[in-house]
Specification:
Length: 307
């Protein structure tokens, strides 16, 4: 199928009558950071589980590291690292022991895992907590340890399922820096995330999934250019003075009406703001911002909450 580390054609996954993944094509090149975005139930986790060789595909073809998961699952799992959505560390063990015990699962020698644990604790900035139990660690520390543990076998491919969910901004940015470092070292990464800024920061390419299919694919910049405009003008009006959305159809490429504001998608937000004022509209506030991946995501998948 080619030289990609992960290649899928017509990949599908069915649970009874429900088809979670509906015939998608995916290519992940060596050394890149590839992202899966989508609302709950879009099929992201089902796809990741197939790539991780823990859930068999229903249809289509899939190659991971040039091998078929149905035939070579153990060999593939020995060469990948997995960071699950929820930390599953051994709370009774120390930081060091979590790394050493996990390394032994891969058949690595005691001498090797002792040295590897020291290296990974430094990478995760946990050296000073080496002999502390896991339970009292902060959420950010536990997340860094989970990522470090996934690297104990020097994986060629790292799968990260929502790696920074629930972390404060400082912990998130520290994890981003660690993931940047792995990319510089040539580790291919596949990430699912609900944070659009995270996807923009980390991903070379990504797909937006919705309803088990791929709605769009490209780099963050390409997706913004293709599905949004360069800038967005946000207007807030008093309820009694709010004009209808179609009043701005002539000054914007697209107008989106939200309960608390109007979004005017345009190439030049300041010029559009001047045109709004010239037309006699006087909002309570006006904000010009750069269009983001979140604008693309919401346009493709909608604003309706999915449980």
């Amino acid at each position: 199928m080619g030289d990609g580390l992960v290649q899928a054609r017509g990949l599908s996954k069915r649970f009874g009558e429900f088809e979670a993944v509906r015939g998608i094509d995916v290519d992940v090149a060596p050394g890149e950071v590839f992202g899966f975005l989508g609302p709950n139930g879009a099929g992201k986790s089902s796809t990741m589980r197939m790539v991780a060789c823990v859930s068999p595909r229903t249809g289509g073809t899939l190659q991971v590291l040039g091998m078929d998961p149905d035939v070579d699952g153990p060999r593939i799992r020995a060469r990948i690292g997995v960071v699950p959505q929820l930390d599953n560390l051994d709370a009774e063990l120390t930081v060091r022991q979590n790394l050493q015990v996990y390394g032994r699962y891969f058949g690595l020698s005691k001498r090797h895992v002792r040295g590897k644990a020291v290296e990974l604790m430094e990478f995760a900035q946990l050296t000073d907590r080496a002999d502390d139990a896991v339970e009292p660690l902060s959420g950010g520390m536990k997340r860094r340890l989970t990522i470090a543990r996934a690297l104990v076998n020097d994986p060629e491919l790292l799968l990260l399922d929502e790696p920074t969910t629930g972390l404060d901004p400082q912990a998130r940015h520290l994890l981003w820096e660690r993931l940047y470092r792995l990319k510089r070292e040539g580790v291919t990464q596949i990430i699912t995330t609900h944070y659009m800024d995270e996807a923009e920061q980390l991903c070379d390419r990504l797909v937006v999934m919705d309803g088990g299919v791929i709605a769009a694919e490209g780099s963050p910049a390409e997706l913004i250019e293709r599905h949004a405009t360069r800038e967005v003008l946000e207007l807030r009006f008093a309820p009694e003075d709010r004009p209808p959305a179609d009043a701005f159809a002539r000054v914007a490429d697209r107008v989106e009406e939200l309960p608390d504001r109007l979004l005017l998608y345009t190439a030049d937000g300041e010029r559009t703001q001047a045109e709004v004022a010239a037309a006699g509209h006087h909002p309570l506030s006006a904000l010009v911002r750069r269009a983001s991946l979140e604008d693309v995501f919401l346009r493709l998948t909608g604003r309706t909450l999915v449980d």
